[in-house]
Amino acid sequence: MDDIDLKILEMLRKNARESLANIGKSVELSAPAIGKRVKQLEEKGIILGYSLKLNHEKLGIRTKAYIILKIHQSSTLKTAYNQIAHLTEVQRCDRITGDDCLCILAFFKDNKELITFLERISQYGVPNTSILLES
Amino acid sequence: MDDIDLKILEMLRKNARESLANIGKSVELSAPAIGKRVKQLEEKGIILGYSLKLNHEKLGIRTKAYIILKIHQSSTLKTAYNQIAHLTEVQRCDRITGDDCLCILAFFKDNKELITFLERISQYGVPNTSILLES
Amino acid sequence: MDDIDLKILEMLRKNARESLANIGKSVELSAPAIGKRVKQLEEKGIILGYSLKLNHEKLGIRTKAYIILKIHQSSTLKTAYNQIAHLTEVQRCDRITGDDCLCILAFFKDNKELITFLERISQYGVPNTSILLES
Amino acid sequence: MDDIDLKILEMLRKNARESLANIGKSVELSAPAIGKRVKQLEEKGIILGYSLKLNHEKLGIRTKAYIILKIHQSSTLKTAYNQIAHLTEVQRCDRITGDDCLCILAFFKDNKELITFLERISQYGVPNTSILLES
Amino acid sequence: MDDIDLKILEMLRKNARESLANIGKSVELSAPAIGKRVKQLEEKGIILGYSLKLNHEKLGIRTKAYIILKIHQSSTLKTAYNQIAHLTEVQRCDRITGDDCLCILAFFKDNKELITFLERISQYGVPNTSILLES
Amino acid sequence: MDDIDLKILEMLRKNARESLANIGKSVELSAPAIGKRVKQLEEKGIILGYSLKLNHEKLGIRTKAYIILKIHQSSTLKTAYNQIAHLTEVQRCDRITGDDCLCILAFFKDNKELITFLERISQYGVPNTSILLES
Amino acid sequence: MDDIDLKILEMLRKNARESLANIGKSVELSAPAIGKRVKQLEEKGIILGYSLKLNHEKLGIRTKAYIILKIHQSSTLKTAYNQIAHLTEVQRCDRITGDDCLCILAFFKDNKELITFLERISQYGVPNTSILLES
Amino acid sequence: MDDIDLKILEMLRKNARESLANIGKSVELSAPAIGKRVKQLEEKGIILGYSLKLNHEKLGIRTKAYIILKIHQSSTLKTAYNQIAHLTEVQRCDRITGDDCLCILAFFKDNKELITFLERISQYGVPNTSILLES
Questions:
Q1: G113 pLDDT exceeds 80?
Q2: What keyword terms does UniProt attach to this protein (chains A, B, C, D, E, F, G, H) (predicted)?
Q3: C84 Cβ contact partners less than 8 Å away, ≥ 6 residues apart
Q4: Contact call for E115 and H134, based on CB within 8 A
């Protein structure tokens, strides 16, 4: 990874749909040369993918919450993680230090959806919920 | 927003660099028609931008942490938020319920960088740190 | 709902037995006109009922307590809620964020009644009790 | 206070606008006799007033919260209580055992109003907020 | 109970072996008159008994501890109380607010005795121990 | 200290006003011999005094509380201890492990007296109060 | 133990491989005399052994952690202690006051090893982990 | 570092005063060869020193404690660390995650010495103390 790669990553981080031509201009390389480098960054596993930044409120999200799930038995944490990380409401799911737990960031249409979610995950552990007031 | 818009969002969420042509194929519309809809989603503020999913470990990140910053005085929380949310190490910064605090997700090269960060933000409040063990 | 409705609600909030005539005077409408509006507020479900403000001490209440009931299993919280919310000692019963729990406000003749209550609800969860010192 | 008084209180608790005639019927007394007893219950300070049960959601309330305000200095708790208890958003305000604090139940139009409220009361102490998910 | 009774209680509180004659002198009554009053205070259940203030260190006590025993099931708290309150190491045993628990003050020859005690009472709940550093 | 001393202590612990004659009978010694031994136990500082066991409820005590006073500055804990330990409401006052604090057991006529007490001691630290429900 | 013994301990504490001759010089005794004293200190059980101070980072240790293991049942704490204290990752293992628990200091190659360790010990209790940031 | 170095470290870990000759025998090398390797391990900074394992009880230690010192201001944590880590009572001093704090392991002659220590370090932060019951 050289300085040009870092510059490419920086531009894509700001706008993942930036055209190769535009990136090329700012580092004085051709679009195909940039395309080759981007491909390499993907192949090396540095770039894992391209995602959207959405205004979730406009899509009907009214309740965002961090949920700390204190696992009943540490030995079942991996199972819990695999079940929970891929639920559609879940934005992030991380095992963190402190009490042995998962820290889940999830978005919901309303409090009812949050309650349903809490009931679903409570088979793995004891949830503690904090609502996001401002982001 | 109709079903086609939802389908477009879903495809871009999976790959924000998906070509308009490919999206068009799956909803049986032309690339320019898709382009127009994407533009509208941007103009309505539903799509806020396009970002990268990076393998931070490969970029030298060895310490990831959630930091709960319990603010000294609630009245200074907004200032703290504005100062902290845009620091380069910070991935997310949210005001959450429970103790009046900011919940900060930040990535660091090593523990030293984390310590420097803690010292910088401790002017606004009392930090509590949890290390991400697995994501 | 217009300004007159808001005025009616404000007057009834202060004194739910206020006569329709008195309310009418202050908004320059007839008693029957007020009666019609009150009926509509009831029918729309805005006014749910009329209640008493009592001096509970004079009725023999010596111990008032907030009880946080941390539910054993989130999936049983709804059952617990339904059983507890309608007990005669219970003034309020709300599911709140933080640890998954019910927040119960209840009034008791004395500490013995409180202890009996704690024992009864402990089948649903682990209680934490705070006594009201001043209201 | 005799059994008839208790019966009157019970009926008014269910519906504070119940007519004296109806109450009279159920205890086999005349409306004026009931009126006299109600007046005595008011004069003895047992009945403190008559209030409304409102559907706050229909009046635009989207965020209900319990806020525990841990007072900076116990000696200022009384001042804090007097300032906070009469704010329009406040439904209940009680000094409780545990950490020396006020337990405040308050209703807000949205999270922004809640944040403004937190900032206003944070001059007296450190707030801890729990959102009501279900009542 | 009159002022003379209060004076008697005050003198006995300072020295429970004070002679009736001495108490009598200070309230200008005869010893038999005092004896009669003391007997009445006992019969009314105001005086429950007479106890020693001991220097426990000189009797070999090296570890004094407050133990908060968080009961597994509130319904078993009474049983736990009855079993624990009369153990020889126990000085006080009270059910207190907060988490549903017993607050036990107990004295031990050494840390080993404390550990044995913790193991014995842990069948009723989860102990939390604080050592007395200074009294 | 021999077995006879231990027997004397045991009898006085049960009834501090036990007559020397009665104690003597049970250990087969004369009253004067017992008196001499008791005097020695006092002189060695093993017996610190004789106190009353009172029914505090019958003396008007309605609120008993444990108060954990978390000291503002450890260096002022000794001052706080000296001021607080001798207040008339205070039954016990101990410095304990955990957070640097005093654990105070105190008895009050009612909640108002407790509140006044909390305000008085809050100059030294932050109080946390638990009410005794059963002893 | 005299002053010379204390001096010997002090020198060995700084460098456990210090030669007897060097120690002897500083206390004006012969090497054999020092040897005899060291032997006595070992026989009395004052010196339990001689250990290395290692740079664990240079041996591949990247994660050091304190783990508080809150035991499921106090009666099983001794078993847990015996199993855990001798695991190779464990540097210290102590039963401490507060919640009935073991306080474990352990060193790991990486976070994965820590997670494996947490899962292994979670059969005895609930772990709470703190990472060492600086020593 | 090869297997022989690892074997040398293992033997020295068990007994830091092990003779080079004995180590040599077990790896089939001469004492001077071992001496050279040990020197290299010291020069590479892998071996930092040689220390004693002492029976502290026999040296008069009666109170061992873990003290979590929650620092007043994170920016002063480094100063606190430097002042505290080298005090004679201190065995370990580590900055750990969770609340921004130092975790101090220290040994004391008695509770009085512990109290003096708490008062000395309380200028840097708020101490929380746990006594070691068993090691």
A1: yes
A2: DNA-binding, Transcription, Transcription regulation
A3: C69, C90, C93, C102, C104, C121, C124
A4: yes
